[in-house]
Amino acid sequence: MAALLGAVAFADTLLGDGSKSAVTSAAFETEMRSIADPAAAMQLRVVTDYVCTLHVDGGVLGIKTAADKPMKIRYKRVGLQYDTAKEGWERFGLVYDTTSMEIEDPGRWEIDGVLGSLLRIVEVAMGRGSVWIEGRIAIALQIGIIEISEAIIRLTFRDGQPLPDFELRGFVLKADIPQVLQGEGRLRIEDGGLIRAGVQAELIPLGLGVEAALAMGTPPEIAPSVFLSLYLGVQFSTPLPLANSGMAIYGFKGLFVMNGQRKLPNNPDPVGRELDWWRTPPESKYEPHKDQYALGVGVVVGTLPDVSFCVSCAGMVVVAFPDVEVILGVDVNIVEVPDTEVTDEGAPAAPSPA
User: CA 125, CA 64: separation in Å to the nearest integer?
Assistant: First the structure.
């Protein structure tokens, strides 16, 4: 509770004009612990659900929400309680569940001044009970051949600390060595020490594209078991002909998951949910689940004479067990300049998982 109050006090200094709250529902509840004497041990509660619309203004920090797109936070079952079993002022208390808060709309964030040309807040997330706030920031910062394009920063509010702790929870780096190497690396550290990382590179002299992804950790829900998701893909410019079919193999993919299951997006449409999962980066496709495994193999094929200009297909079959699940995903491109960069993300136009 102290951490929560500290977060509220810190946030209060950042709220701009136009911030407001709206009650969406209210309820009166009674709980009796004894039938023989109900009044001696009875709890009376008034709980509400409400939405806070926040226009954040960071002042000298230059961070704020857009005037037409504020941040919205929803609170559920927050209110007051009166307990007849207690004495004096202890009979009155707050009703607040640390899981009752969620971000309804993260809003659109802006950065003023010189930093605005270098930084852009892409996404904002918040922990249950507002113990932490996390922002994903797009960065335009180049150091030699390395470009830092994204960083994830978390503010954690702790008991007894007037200011929050700052943590770097992830980043995205890009490298570009002319005529030698082009690539991107991603790293994210999640709660419970779960690490998700991915790298994608093109070795220009060899005409070789490589992608690897790793998710690993021992989160509390499966400890002491280890969650592991390993993906590897390779795509080469020199094709392997498939007999006299006019087609050729341009690459291979492989996947192994231990103590994990698919991490399906929150989409009510079953088809849209599968398409969203297919487009998810490989290191984020699975989440910890004890004693569940998966194996996947894939191939990239295309037309041989025109180096897959007319038709190219990238497909993968994944089998999960012991709870059996079979996933088939295929991307088909027709009359398109071939992409020599291997990837496990479905193309937006034509993924067809089944």
Answer: 15
59 pLDDT tier (thresholds 50, 70, 90): low
Length of the chain: 354
DSSP labels, 2-15: HHHHHHHHHHHTTB
**pLDDT, average across residues 160-184:** 82
Helix (H) or strand (E) segment spanning residue 117: none
Q: What tokens does 72 get?
A: 């919205």
d(CA 345, CA 86): 58
Residue 70, token pair as written in the block: 């504020």
**CA dist., res. 220 & res. 222, Å (int):** 6
Tell me the three state secondary structure of residue 162: coil
Phi first, then psi, for residue 288 (nearest 5°) are -60, 135
For 109-115, which contacts have Cβ atoms below 8 Å and span 24 or more sequence positions? 109/56, 109/63, 109/64, 109/65, 109/66, 109/135, 110/63, 110/64, 110/65, 110/66, 111/62, 111/63, 111/64, 112/62, 112/64, 113/62, 115/62
- 169 versus 289: the higher-pLDDT residue is 289
Pairwise CA distance, residues 320 & 185, whole Å:
28
Contact 300, 276 (CB under 8 A): no
Q: What residues have CB less than 8 Å from 354, skipping those under 6 apart?
A: 327, 328, 329
Rounded to the nearest 5°, which phi and psi values hold at 193?
80, 15
N- to C-terminal Cα distance for the chain? Answer: 47
β-bridge partners, 300? 251, 314
CA distance 334 to 322: 37
Q: For the residues 327-337, what does the mean pLDDT come to?
A: 83
Per-residue pLDDT, averaged over 45-66, amounts to: 81
Global pTM exceeds 0.85:
no
Q: Give the residue, 70 or 337, on which the prediction is more confident.
A: 70
Q: Quote the DSSP letter at residue 115.
A: G
Beta carbons of 105 and 126 less than 8 angstroms apart: no
* Res 98 pLDDT > 70: no
Nearest in space to 219 (alpha carbons), one of 260, 158, 255:
260
